[in-house]
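User: For my dataset I need records formatted as: sequence, then structure tokens, nothing else. Please produce one.
Assistant:
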Amino acid sequence: LGRQLCFLAVLLVAVAGLAQENAVRVGVALLQNQAGRAVPANVERDRLVKALNQLKPDKKTHKKVVGVPLDGMTPNEISEEAEQKNCQYVVYTTLTELRNADDPYQRPPGTVESNPNSQWSNQSGRGERMDPEFRVTVDYKLVSVPGNNAVAGAPYSTQLAMNEIDAVSQVLDRIASRVADEVKKSASPAMKE
């Protein structure tokens, strides 16, 4: 029985080591908010971490993207924390637009629209309670650690009928997929073995 437990312990350590070798750690900084409406930065950061962690490993390389929450406020604090937590990348997000139909609109240049040419829905006057539509735009920047070399980044925008926080979370889910794709593409030759 003692040998079996010892063998099992060694096997678990080996599997854990392989899982760590195949993991690419991406630090996620707190969401910066430049929009006129308030959303909790830590909730949205945690949403992006969760979305990254739910992505499946790459089928060819078996690399798994692991989201790591970062609490630093300045770029230096974030960079230091990312290095301490063994992150290969950091993703920065900035909420640049969060508005409903009553708010003025200015389309940020270079935005990737996931729902282009969308129109605001006409709310019926029947007294039904419907979530208002919110237009959300989030800029993201993926940088390598160390060095802070920008790997990718582009604004993502959509228009959804739901509450403000969930609308922002939907965009962050799309950014998580994009970040994972960029991490896989920009992996060093040693990581592509």
